[in-house]
Specification:
The chain has 253 residues and is an alpha/beta fold. Helices cover 46% and strands 23% of the residues. The strands form 2 sheets. It has a 7-stranded mixed sheet with strand order 5-4-3-6-7-9-8, with helices on both faces. The longest helix is centred in the last third of the chain and has 23 residues. The structure holds S-adenosylmethionine (SAM).
């Protein structure tokens, strides 16, 4: 069963709500419009800084080298792009995101850090990438695919723009396998996290959406199957922090 088949025809989920498919992108955009200026601070507060370890694990596994051309989709404020360039200064990274406010935060961070070369920012939907077929060496997406309306279409786009042999690497919240940890994580997610979002970002509803969208996202195995269905090979999965997050790696064979 795909993620989309759980909803009535023409509907999808937005957190725990059912909404018309045509509405979801606008709703997701409004979430990130609202949180953009507190996004980086909230990431650190919500995760106690652990998102940095997960992103470091992603870059370790990606292991970018030389003049590699990387597309970072849903790249937001540039966290993944900056880390790629720290590791591979000759890389070219295109940060694509549907939300202009998030891209502006990223561009401002880049200017503040004097990172003006090898980094391009583009407003683009993961479902309609304005890039030629077979044009990038690697496609990365961190905490983004969960927000996309049609995950299968985004995966097909990833496959299309990758060169043969190119690497797909996705970091996303996933499903905790240990029941005791899952209970603790649920209590934190549903009771504390939205309150923190209300207090720091003045937006409890957006952080409730975050928690709900994580619960609606397919587990490690189902998401791996969706990647296979998009045509990828060599699928590998690594759990992070007991499955709170997971990395899915694949190649366009
Ligand atoms: N990758 C960054 C990181 O790890 O810090 C940002 C992740 S943030 C949780 C999710 C991002 O996905 C937001 O910037 C949002 O605008 C973007 N996004 C949501 N739907 C998208 C879509 N259909 N296409 C491209 N970006 C999208």
């Amino acid at each position: 069963m795909t993620d989309m088949q759980e909803n009535a025809a023409g509907e999808t989920h937005f957190g725990f709500r059912s909404v018309p498919e045509s509405e979801k992108a606008r709703l997701v955009r409004s979430v990130f419009d609202s949180v953009a200026d507190r996004y980086d601070l909230m990431n650190d507060l919500m995760s106690g800084g652990i998102h940095r370890l997960w992103k470091a694990a992603m870059i370790d596994w990606l292991n970018p080298r030389g003049a590699i051309r990387i597309l970072d989709v849903a790249g937001g404020t540039g966290d993944i792009a900056f880390r790629i360039l720290d590791r591979a200064p000759q890389a070219e990274v295109l940060v694509a995101d549907i939300n202009v406010a998030m891209l502006e935060q990223g561009r401002n961070r880049a200017i503040d850090q004097g990172r003006l070369r090898r980094l391009t920012w583009a407003c683009m939907d993961a479902e309609r990438l304005a890039l030629p077929d077979r044009s990038v060496d690697a496609y990365t997406i961190a905490f983004g695919i969960r927000n996309v309306t049609h995950i299968d279409i985004a995966l097909a786009e990833a496959f299309r723009v990758l060169k043969p042999g190119g690497r797909f690497l996705c970091l996303e919240f996933s499903h905790v396998r240990n029941p005791a940890l899952a209970a603790l994580y649920d209590a934190y997610s549903f009771n504390i996290l939205p309150k923190l979002g209300g207090f720091v970002a003045n937006d409890e509803a957006s952080y409730r959406y975050l928690v709900e969208s994580i619960r609606r996202f397919p587990d490690q195995d189902r998401f791996a199957q969706m990647i296979v269905n998009a045509g990828f090979g060599n699928i590998q999965v690594r759990d992070l922090s007991g499955g709170i997050a997971a990395l899915h790696s694949a190649r366009r064979i």
